[in-house]
Design brief:
By secondary structure, the chain is of the alpha/beta class. Helices cover 43% and strands 16% of the residues. α1 crosses α9, α10 packs across α16 and α11 packs across α13. The radius of gyration is 24 Å and the shape is globular. It starts with a strand and ends with a helix.
Length: 428
Protein backbone atom coordinates (compact mmCIF):
# COMPACT_ATOMS: atom_id res chain seq x y z
CA UNK A 1 0.00 0.00 0.00
CA UNK A 2 1.21 3.52 -0.83
CA UNK A 3 2.58 5.73 1.95
CA UNK A 4 0.47 8.63 0.71
CA UNK A 5 -2.84 8.74 -1.11
CA UNK A 6 -6.33 10.08 -1.58
CA UNK A 7 -9.16 8.78 0.63
CA UNK A 8 -12.68 8.76 -0.79
CA UNK A 9 -15.54 6.51 -1.79
CA UNK A 10 -15.53 6.71 -5.62
CA UNK A 11 -12.27 7.96 -7.12
CA UNK A 12 -12.13 6.59 -10.65
CA UNK A 13 -11.32 9.91 -12.36
CA UNK A 14 -9.33 11.82 -9.77
CA UNK A 15 -6.28 13.87 -10.79
CA UNK A 16 -4.75 13.86 -7.30
CA UNK A 17 -2.10 11.17 -7.95
CA UNK A 18 -0.89 13.06 -11.03
CA UNK A 19 -0.87 16.38 -9.16
CA UNK A 20 1.21 15.05 -6.28
CA UNK A 21 3.60 13.23 -8.60
CA UNK A 22 4.22 16.44 -10.52
CA UNK A 23 4.53 18.53 -7.35
CA UNK A 24 6.91 16.41 -5.29
CA UNK A 25 7.41 13.12 -7.15
CA UNK A 26 6.07 10.92 -4.37
CA UNK A 27 4.34 7.52 -4.46
CA UNK A 28 0.68 8.52 -4.20
CA UNK A 29 -2.18 6.03 -4.30
CA UNK A 30 -5.97 5.97 -4.25
CA UNK A 31 -7.90 4.54 -1.29
CA UNK A 32 -11.52 3.82 -2.19
CA UNK A 33 -13.11 2.94 1.14
CA UNK A 34 -16.83 2.26 1.72
CA UNK A 35 -18.39 4.20 4.63
CA UNK A 36 -18.76 1.15 6.88
CA UNK A 37 -15.00 0.48 6.66
CA UNK A 38 -13.79 4.04 7.26
CA UNK A 39 -13.01 3.61 10.95
CA UNK A 40 -11.10 0.35 10.47
CA UNK A 41 -9.11 1.81 7.58
CA UNK A 42 -7.98 4.81 9.62
CA UNK A 43 -7.23 2.67 12.69
CA UNK A 44 -4.84 0.45 10.70
CA UNK A 45 -2.56 3.44 9.95
CA UNK A 46 -1.42 1.78 6.70
CA UNK A 47 -0.31 5.18 5.39
CA UNK A 48 1.85 8.16 6.34
CA UNK A 49 -0.51 10.81 5.04
CA UNK A 50 -3.85 11.15 3.31
CA UNK A 51 -5.75 13.67 1.28
CA UNK A 52 -9.48 13.40 2.01
CA UNK A 53 -12.31 14.07 -0.43
CA UNK A 54 -16.08 13.56 -0.82
CA UNK A 55 -17.83 12.22 1.24
CA UNK A 56 -15.39 12.03 4.17
CA UNK A 57 -14.22 15.59 4.92
CA UNK A 58 -16.42 15.76 8.00
CA UNK A 59 -16.71 12.02 8.67
CA UNK A 60 -12.99 11.63 9.44
CA UNK A 61 -12.97 14.24 12.22
CA UNK A 62 -13.98 11.86 15.06
CA UNK A 63 -11.03 9.61 14.13
CA UNK A 64 -8.47 12.43 14.34
CA UNK A 65 -6.61 12.87 17.61
CA UNK A 66 -6.03 16.58 16.92
CA UNK A 67 -6.91 19.25 14.37
CA UNK A 68 -4.98 22.24 13.09
CA UNK A 69 -6.67 25.61 13.79
CA UNK A 70 -8.12 26.00 10.29
CA UNK A 71 -9.61 22.49 10.22
CA UNK A 72 -11.07 23.08 13.68
CA UNK A 73 -12.52 26.41 12.61
CA UNK A 74 -14.08 24.96 9.45
CA UNK A 75 -15.20 21.64 10.89
CA UNK A 76 -13.76 20.04 7.75
CA UNK A 77 -10.63 17.97 7.14
CA UNK A 78 -9.09 17.31 3.73
CA UNK A 79 -5.67 16.10 4.91
CA UNK A 80 -4.56 13.66 7.62
CA UNK A 81 -1.01 13.05 8.74
CA UNK A 82 0.37 10.36 11.02
CA UNK A 83 2.33 12.22 13.68
CA UNK A 84 5.66 10.87 15.07
CA UNK A 85 3.81 9.50 18.11
CA UNK A 86 1.38 7.57 15.88
CA UNK A 87 -1.61 9.88 16.39
CA UNK A 88 -3.66 11.31 13.53
CA UNK A 89 -3.76 15.05 12.94
CA UNK A 90 -6.33 16.61 10.63
CA UNK A 91 -5.65 19.65 8.46
CA UNK A 92 -7.59 21.72 5.97
CA UNK A 93 -5.58 22.85 2.95
CA UNK A 94 -8.69 23.68 0.90
CA UNK A 95 -8.61 27.07 2.62
CA UNK A 96 -5.16 27.80 1.19
CA UNK A 97 -6.14 26.42 -2.21
CA UNK A 98 -9.26 28.53 -2.53
CA UNK A 99 -7.48 31.66 -1.26
CA UNK A 100 -4.87 31.16 -3.99
CA UNK A 101 -7.60 30.56 -6.59
CA UNK A 102 -9.40 33.81 -5.73
CA UNK A 103 -6.22 35.88 -5.85
CA UNK A 104 -5.10 34.26 -9.10
CA UNK A 105 -8.46 34.99 -10.72
CA UNK A 106 -8.22 38.64 -9.68
CA UNK A 107 -11.77 38.56 -8.36
CA UNK A 108 -11.97 40.90 -5.38
CA UNK A 109 -14.25 39.69 -2.57
CA UNK A 110 -13.71 42.72 -0.34
CA UNK A 111 -16.98 44.57 0.09
CA UNK A 112 -18.77 42.17 -2.25
CA UNK A 113 -22.06 40.34 -1.86
CA UNK A 114 -21.08 36.68 -2.30
CA UNK A 115 -23.36 33.74 -3.09
CA UNK A 116 -21.94 30.39 -2.02
CA UNK A 117 -23.66 27.38 -3.55
CA UNK A 118 -23.51 24.40 -1.18
CA UNK A 119 -22.98 23.80 2.53
CA UNK A 120 -20.49 20.88 2.54
CA UNK A 121 -16.78 20.66 3.30
CA UNK A 122 -15.67 22.71 0.31
CA UNK A 123 -18.24 25.40 1.16
CA UNK A 124 -16.77 25.70 4.64
CA UNK A 125 -13.36 26.62 3.22
CA UNK A 126 -14.93 29.00 0.69
CA UNK A 127 -16.92 30.72 3.45
CA UNK A 128 -13.86 31.20 5.64
CA UNK A 129 -11.90 32.74 2.77
CA UNK A 130 -14.80 35.07 1.92
CA UNK A 131 -14.98 36.14 5.58
CA UNK A 132 -11.24 36.71 5.81
CA UNK A 133 -11.26 38.70 2.56
CA UNK A 134 -13.94 40.97 4.07
CA UNK A 135 -16.91 40.15 1.88
CA UNK A 136 -19.77 42.54 2.67
CA UNK A 137 -22.45 39.84 2.72
CA UNK A 138 -22.31 36.06 2.40
CA UNK A 139 -25.40 34.11 1.37
CA UNK A 140 -25.48 30.32 1.41
CA UNK A 141 -27.66 28.48 -1.09
CA UNK A 142 -28.71 24.87 -0.55
CA UNK A 143 -31.49 22.56 -1.62
CA UNK A 144 -33.05 22.58 1.84
CA UNK A 145 -32.00 25.99 3.15
CA UNK A 146 -34.08 29.13 3.62
CA UNK A 147 -32.82 30.25 0.18
CA UNK A 148 -32.82 27.46 -2.41
CA UNK A 149 -31.86 27.24 -6.07
CA UNK A 150 -35.34 28.12 -7.34
CA UNK A 151 -35.63 31.37 -5.37
CA UNK A 152 -32.05 32.64 -5.32
CA UNK A 153 -32.16 34.78 -8.47
CA UNK A 154 -35.32 36.54 -7.30
CA UNK A 155 -34.09 37.17 -3.75
CA UNK A 156 -30.41 37.88 -4.46
CA UNK A 157 -30.18 39.28 -7.98
CA UNK A 158 -27.68 41.85 -6.67
CA UNK A 159 -25.02 39.19 -5.95
CA UNK A 160 -21.60 40.30 -7.21
CA UNK A 161 -19.61 37.06 -6.89
CA UNK A 162 -21.04 33.56 -7.30
CA UNK A 163 -19.11 30.53 -6.06
CA UNK A 164 -20.07 26.92 -6.74
CA UNK A 165 -18.91 24.68 -3.89
CA UNK A 166 -21.18 21.76 -4.82
CA UNK A 167 -20.45 18.72 -7.02
CA UNK A 168 -23.19 19.79 -9.46
CA UNK A 169 -21.62 19.82 -12.93
CA UNK A 170 -18.80 17.44 -12.00
CA UNK A 171 -17.92 14.39 -14.10
CA UNK A 172 -19.82 12.32 -15.17
CA UNK A 173 -22.76 14.74 -14.86
CA UNK A 174 -21.07 17.40 -16.98
CA UNK A 175 -24.33 18.75 -18.39
CA UNK A 176 -25.64 19.83 -14.98
CA UNK A 177 -25.47 23.45 -13.82
CA UNK A 178 -26.40 24.53 -10.27
CA UNK A 179 -27.88 27.89 -11.35
CA UNK A 180 -28.19 30.10 -14.41
CA UNK A 181 -26.63 33.54 -14.42
CA UNK A 182 -29.65 35.19 -16.01
CA UNK A 183 -30.87 37.93 -13.72
CA UNK A 184 -27.58 38.40 -11.84
CA UNK A 185 -26.83 41.67 -13.60
CA UNK A 186 -24.30 42.87 -11.04
CA UNK A 187 -22.27 39.65 -11.13
CA UNK A 188 -18.60 40.43 -11.75
CA UNK A 189 -16.99 37.11 -10.88
CA UNK A 190 -17.77 33.38 -10.97
CA UNK A 191 -15.69 30.69 -9.27
CA UNK A 192 -16.24 26.92 -9.43
CA UNK A 193 -14.26 24.51 -7.25
CA UNK A 194 -14.88 21.64 -9.72
CA UNK A 195 -11.82 20.70 -11.81
CA UNK A 196 -13.28 17.84 -13.86
CA UNK A 197 -14.37 19.06 -16.37
CA UNK A 198 -11.89 21.89 -16.76
CA UNK A 199 -14.76 24.21 -17.70
CA UNK A 200 -18.12 23.50 -16.10
CA UNK A 201 -21.36 24.64 -17.69
CA UNK A 202 -21.47 27.42 -15.09
CA UNK A 203 -18.05 28.67 -16.21
CA UNK A 204 -18.99 28.43 -19.88
CA UNK A 205 -22.03 30.61 -19.23
CA UNK A 206 -19.85 33.13 -17.38
CA UNK A 207 -17.42 33.19 -20.31
CA UNK A 208 -20.31 33.73 -22.72
CA UNK A 209 -21.46 36.71 -20.66
CA UNK A 210 -17.96 38.14 -20.38
CA UNK A 211 -17.77 37.61 -16.61
CA UNK A 212 -14.29 36.84 -15.18
CA UNK A 213 -14.27 33.25 -13.98
CA UNK A 214 -11.98 30.49 -12.73
CA UNK A 215 -12.23 26.69 -12.46
CA UNK A 216 -11.07 24.42 -9.66
CA UNK A 217 -7.80 23.12 -11.15
CA UNK A 218 -5.74 25.89 -9.56
CA UNK A 219 -7.43 25.27 -6.21
CA UNK A 220 -6.67 21.54 -6.51
CA UNK A 221 -3.00 22.13 -7.22
CA UNK A 222 -2.60 24.95 -4.67
CA UNK A 223 -4.12 22.93 -1.83
CA UNK A 224 -1.97 19.95 -2.84
CA UNK A 225 1.13 22.16 -2.71
CA UNK A 226 0.26 23.18 0.85
CA UNK A 227 -0.31 19.51 1.75
CA UNK A 228 3.04 18.52 0.24
CA UNK A 229 4.73 21.17 2.37
CA UNK A 230 3.08 19.76 5.50
CA UNK A 231 3.91 16.17 4.53
CA UNK A 232 7.59 16.94 3.84
CA UNK A 233 8.29 19.95 6.04
CA UNK A 234 9.78 21.70 2.99
CA UNK A 235 8.44 24.86 1.34
CA UNK A 236 7.62 24.80 -2.38
CA UNK A 237 7.64 27.97 -4.53
CA UNK A 238 4.24 29.24 -5.70
CA UNK A 239 5.53 29.09 -9.27
CA UNK A 240 5.17 25.31 -9.07
CA UNK A 241 1.37 25.72 -9.01
CA UNK A 242 1.26 27.30 -12.47
CA UNK A 243 3.77 24.80 -13.85
CA UNK A 244 1.76 21.83 -12.62
CA UNK A 245 -1.54 23.30 -13.87
CA UNK A 246 0.01 23.75 -17.30
CA UNK A 247 1.38 20.19 -17.32
CA UNK A 248 -1.99 18.75 -16.32
CA UNK A 249 -3.84 20.72 -18.97
CA UNK A 250 -1.41 19.52 -21.65
CA UNK A 251 -1.98 15.93 -20.49
CA UNK A 252 -5.78 15.90 -20.20
CA UNK A 253 -7.14 18.62 -22.50
CA UNK A 254 -8.61 17.42 -25.80
CA UNK A 255 -7.53 18.95 -29.09
CA UNK A 256 -10.75 19.73 -30.99
CA UNK A 257 -10.60 20.54 -34.71
CA UNK A 258 -13.51 22.44 -36.27
CA UNK A 259 -13.97 23.80 -39.78
CA UNK A 260 -15.83 23.42 -43.04
CA UNK A 261 -16.54 19.92 -44.39
CA UNK A 262 -13.51 18.78 -46.38
CA UNK A 263 -11.07 21.24 -44.78
CA UNK A 264 -8.61 18.47 -43.83
CA UNK A 265 -9.46 18.12 -40.15
CA UNK A 266 -9.26 14.31 -40.08
CA UNK A 267 -5.94 14.04 -41.92
CA UNK A 268 -4.44 16.82 -39.83
CA UNK A 269 -5.89 15.22 -36.70
CA UNK A 270 -4.20 11.93 -37.55
CA UNK A 271 -0.79 13.60 -37.69
CA UNK A 272 -1.41 15.40 -34.40
CA UNK A 273 -2.65 12.22 -32.72
CA UNK A 274 0.44 10.33 -33.87
CA UNK A 275 2.77 13.07 -32.63
CA UNK A 276 1.06 13.11 -29.21
CA UNK A 277 0.50 9.36 -28.95
CA UNK A 278 -3.22 10.06 -28.61
CA UNK A 279 -6.38 8.53 -30.01
CA UNK A 280 -8.04 10.30 -32.94
CA UNK A 281 -11.84 10.36 -32.95
CA UNK A 282 -13.56 11.41 -36.17
CA UNK A 283 -16.99 12.49 -34.97
CA UNK A 284 -18.75 11.64 -38.25
CA UNK A 285 -17.25 8.15 -38.18
CA UNK A 286 -18.21 7.80 -34.53
CA UNK A 287 -21.83 8.69 -35.34
CA UNK A 288 -21.85 6.29 -38.30
CA UNK A 289 -20.65 3.47 -36.05
CA UNK A 290 -23.26 4.24 -33.39
CA UNK A 291 -26.12 4.54 -35.92
CA UNK A 292 -25.00 1.73 -38.20
CA UNK A 293 -25.43 3.86 -41.34
CA UNK A 294 -23.53 6.46 -43.36
CA UNK A 295 -23.89 10.22 -42.91
CA UNK A 296 -25.53 10.64 -46.37
CA UNK A 297 -28.04 7.92 -45.44
CA UNK A 298 -28.82 9.62 -42.11
CA UNK A 299 -29.47 12.91 -43.91
CA UNK A 300 -31.59 11.22 -46.57
CA UNK A 301 -33.64 9.09 -44.19
CA UNK A 302 -33.91 11.21 -41.03
CA UNK A 303 -32.97 14.74 -42.05
CA UNK A 304 -30.44 17.29 -40.85
CA UNK A 305 -32.18 18.07 -37.54
CA UNK A 306 -31.97 14.42 -36.45
CA UNK A 307 -28.29 14.35 -37.41
CA UNK A 308 -27.60 17.47 -35.34
CA UNK A 309 -29.23 15.75 -32.36
CA UNK A 310 -26.81 12.85 -32.89
CA UNK A 311 -23.91 15.33 -32.97
CA UNK A 312 -25.02 16.81 -29.66
CA UNK A 313 -25.06 13.38 -28.03
CA UNK A 314 -21.70 12.43 -29.57
CA UNK A 315 -20.21 15.72 -28.34
CA UNK A 316 -21.45 15.04 -24.82
CA UNK A 317 -19.92 11.55 -24.78
CA UNK A 318 -16.59 12.58 -26.29
CA UNK A 319 -16.38 15.88 -24.42
CA UNK A 320 -16.33 14.04 -21.09
CA UNK A 321 -13.15 12.21 -22.09
CA UNK A 322 -9.57 13.43 -21.78
CA UNK A 323 -6.48 13.39 -23.94
CA UNK A 324 -8.18 12.89 -27.31
CA UNK A 325 -7.80 14.51 -30.70
CA UNK A 326 -11.36 15.11 -31.93
CA UNK A 327 -12.15 15.93 -35.55
CA UNK A 328 -15.59 17.52 -35.32
CA UNK A 329 -18.10 17.53 -38.15
CA UNK A 330 -18.32 20.67 -40.24
CA UNK A 331 -21.71 21.61 -38.81
CA UNK A 332 -21.02 20.82 -35.16
CA UNK A 333 -20.78 24.55 -34.47
CA UNK A 334 -24.42 25.19 -35.35
CA UNK A 335 -25.59 23.69 -32.05
CA UNK A 336 -24.34 25.51 -28.97
CA UNK A 337 -24.95 22.36 -26.89
CA UNK A 338 -22.40 20.48 -29.01
CA UNK A 339 -19.70 23.10 -28.72
CA UNK A 340 -20.27 23.63 -25.00
CA UNK A 341 -19.77 19.90 -24.47
CA UNK A 342 -16.58 19.85 -26.55
CA UNK A 343 -15.17 22.99 -24.93
CA UNK A 344 -15.54 21.67 -21.37
CA UNK A 345 -12.32 19.69 -21.74
CA UNK A 346 -11.16 20.97 -25.11
CA UNK A 347 -8.80 23.39 -26.80
CA UNK A 348 -10.55 24.32 -30.07
CA UNK A 349 -8.73 24.91 -33.37
CA UNK A 350 -10.46 26.31 -36.46
CA UNK A 351 -8.95 24.73 -39.59
CA UNK A 352 -9.59 27.32 -42.31
CA UNK A 353 -9.20 26.21 -45.93
CA UNK A 354 -10.07 28.11 -49.14
CA UNK A 355 -13.47 27.08 -50.52
CA UNK A 356 -12.00 26.08 -53.89
CA UNK A 357 -9.82 23.48 -52.13
CA UNK A 358 -12.52 21.82 -49.99
CA UNK A 359 -13.24 18.14 -50.58
CA UNK A 360 -16.97 17.64 -51.25
CA UNK A 361 -17.48 13.96 -52.01
CA UNK A 362 -19.88 12.21 -49.60
CA UNK A 363 -20.72 15.47 -47.82
CA UNK A 364 -24.47 16.23 -48.10
CA UNK A 365 -24.26 19.95 -47.34
CA UNK A 366 -21.26 20.54 -49.61
CA UNK A 367 -23.14 19.82 -52.82
CA UNK A 368 -24.33 22.56 -55.19
CA UNK A 369 -21.05 24.11 -56.28
CA UNK A 370 -18.98 27.02 -55.04
CA UNK A 371 -21.93 29.36 -54.52
CA UNK A 372 -23.56 26.86 -52.13
CA UNK A 373 -20.26 26.43 -50.30
CA UNK A 374 -19.86 30.20 -50.04
CA UNK A 375 -23.32 30.51 -48.54
CA UNK A 376 -22.54 27.74 -46.02
CA UNK A 377 -19.20 29.35 -45.16
CA UNK A 378 -20.77 32.79 -44.69
CA UNK A 379 -23.36 31.30 -42.33
CA UNK A 380 -20.75 29.55 -40.21
CA UNK A 381 -17.57 31.63 -40.24
CA UNK A 382 -18.64 33.67 -37.22
CA UNK A 383 -19.28 30.46 -35.29
CA UNK A 384 -15.95 28.91 -36.29
CA UNK A 385 -13.93 31.95 -35.22
CA UNK A 386 -16.09 32.57 -32.17
CA UNK A 387 -15.58 29.11 -30.72
CA UNK A 388 -11.91 28.76 -31.70
CA UNK A 389 -9.07 29.28 -29.26
CA UNK A 390 -6.74 29.34 -32.29
CA UNK A 391 -7.32 29.64 -36.07
CA UNK A 392 -5.04 27.68 -38.42
CA UNK A 393 -4.81 28.14 -42.22
CA UNK A 394 -4.63 24.95 -44.30
CA UNK A 395 -4.09 25.61 -47.99
CA UNK A 396 -2.43 23.96 -50.98
CA UNK A 397 1.30 24.53 -50.95
CA UNK A 398 1.53 24.47 -47.18
CA UNK A 399 3.10 21.40 -45.59
CA UNK A 400 0.47 19.51 -43.60
CA UNK A 401 3.25 18.36 -41.27
CA UNK A 402 4.18 22.01 -40.66
CA UNK A 403 0.53 22.85 -39.93
CA UNK A 404 0.36 19.95 -37.44
CA UNK A 405 3.52 21.21 -35.72
CA UNK A 406 1.95 24.68 -35.51
CA UNK A 407 -1.13 23.20 -33.83
CA UNK A 408 1.09 21.43 -31.29
CA UNK A 409 3.00 24.62 -30.48
CA UNK A 410 -0.18 26.67 -30.17
CA UNK A 411 -1.77 23.98 -27.98
CA UNK A 412 1.16 24.10 -25.56
CA UNK A 413 0.98 27.90 -25.60
CA UNK A 414 -2.76 27.89 -24.79
CA UNK A 415 -2.18 25.47 -21.89
CA UNK A 416 0.65 27.60 -20.50
CA UNK A 417 -1.40 30.77 -20.89
CA UNK A 418 -4.39 29.23 -19.12
CA UNK A 419 -2.18 28.46 -16.11
CA UNK A 420 -1.30 32.15 -15.65
CA UNK A 421 -3.27 34.63 -13.54
CA UNK A 422 -5.83 36.61 -15.53
CA UNK A 423 -3.89 39.86 -15.17
CA UNK A 424 -0.82 38.21 -16.71
CA UNK A 425 -2.89 36.68 -19.54
CA UNK A 426 -4.11 40.15 -20.50
CA UNK A 427 -0.51 41.39 -20.83
CA UNK A 428 0.42 38.66 -23.34
Amino acid sequence: MEAYGLLGEHLGHTLSPLVHKLLWNCPFGVFEVPPQELGDFLARRAFRGLMVTIPYKKAVIPFCDSLDPIAERLGSVNMIQVEPDGTLKGYNTDYYGFMYMVKRAGINLQGAKVLILGTGGAAAAVTAVAEDMNAREIVHISRRGPVDYTSVSALHSDAEVIINATPVGMYPNNDACPIRLTGFRRCRGVLDVIYNPLRTMLLLEAEHRGIPCEGGLTMLVAQAKRAAELFTGKELPDARIGEVCSNIMEAVCNIVLIGMPGSGKSYLGGLIAKAFGRELINMDTYIEDVQGKSIPDIFAQQGEAAFRDMEVEASRVLGRKNGLVISAGGGTVVRKESMDALRQNGCVFFVDRPLSELATEGRPLSQGGESALQKLYDARIGLYTGYADVSILNTTGMSVEHIAETVLREYEKVCRLASLPLWEQKQI
